[in-house]
Design brief:
Elements: E1 3-9, H1 13-24, E2 31-37, H2 44-51, E3 59-63, H3 69-79, E4 84-87, E5 92-94, H4 99-110, E6 114-123, E7 126-134, E8 156-158, H5 159-165, H6 176-187, E9 192-203, H7 211-228, H8 235-239, H9 241-258
Parallel strand pairs: 1-2, 1-4, 2-3, 6-9
Antiparallel strand pairs: 4-8, 5-9, 6-7, 6-8
Helix pairs in contact: 1-2
């Protein structure tokens, strides 16, 4: 079973090597790796040229202007040859060499449309210390109404699901992943399965994790998205998820300690 991994990159030369190395180290062999670069000017293209031979034909990449993160992700979906597709950001890396192997085994055994697991965050200056553990363990379809979704970097979904129901709506600047999950999981009820494992290590500072302005923007987009599907919500309802974030902050180490060893 071929799994496509898509990395979207723009001027990520400082972190791109870590991402590429973590894909190379995966024990699962049947990987179709795609890098969609947005015409970087910082040496990223040279890094891609350097690494391409090491993938021995399993890596493809493009470097050209695009309409932003979600436009590039849609491009990756269209280029993917795998039965399932997952995303690995250019400043993130797999927590273990067995991450994709475990994902593939669960997909094969369950036959689910998609699987998801956990991720954890680190500061860029200390990649060994977990500052936040994002567990998808308690996620339920109903929680989407609160603005809560599974950890997106751990989400692996059938390509034909994207083809049937659509990818990422580029009119949303921050929350197109939320829109996608509303459409796939809440509206169309695709079959999903949770894997209690930490799959991806994420550096803090991304578009959806930095600052109060970002959170206000996310709130506005969430309300707009839910309204577009006829799902009632408001600021109070969406704010309830922050109680879980507080719980997660103080009990995240428990989830980390009790996640399965890869």
């Amino acid at each position: 079973m071929k799994i496509s991994i898509v990395t979207v990159s723009y001027n990520s030369a400082m972190t791109l090597r870590d991402t590429l190395e973590s894909v190379l180290q995966q024990t699962y062999a049947d990987i179709d790796y795609i890098v969609v670069d947005g015409a970087s000017t910082d040496g990223s293209v040279e890094i891609l040229r350097e690494y391409e031979p090491r993938f021995e034909g399993r890596m493809r990449w493009v470097s050209e202007p695009d309409g932003g993160l979600y436009d590039a992700m849609n491009k990756g979906i269209s280029l993917a040859n795998g039965e399932y597709i997952g995303f690995l950001n250019s400043d993130d890396f797999y927590t273990s060499p067995r991450s994709v192997e475990i994902i593939a085994k669960e997909l094969e055994s369950s036959g689910s449309d998609a699987v998801y697991g956990d991720v954890h965050f680190v500061r860029p200056d200390n990649l060994q210390h977990c500052v936040r553990y994002y567990s998808s363990r308690l996620f339920h379809r109903r929680w989407i109404r609160l603005g809560y979704i599974p950890a997106h970097p751990s989400f692996y979904c059938k390509k034909n699901i994207y083809e049937k129901y659509g990818g990422y709506n580029t009119k949303y600047r921050i929350a197109a992943d939320f829109d996608c999950f509303v459409r796939l999981i809440y509206i169309n009820r695709i079959s999903t399965r949770y894997i209690p494992m930490d799959f991806v290590t994420m550096r803090t500072g991304g578009a959806s994790t930095s600052g109060i302005k970002s959170h206000i923007g996310i709130m506005r987009e969430h309300i707009s998205i839910l309204k577009s599907y006829g799902i009632y919500s408001n600021t109070f309802i969406l704010s309830l998820r922050y109680f879980y974030k507080i719980f997660e902050k103080y009990f995240g180490k428990y989830f980390l300690k009790n996640s399965k060893t890869l």
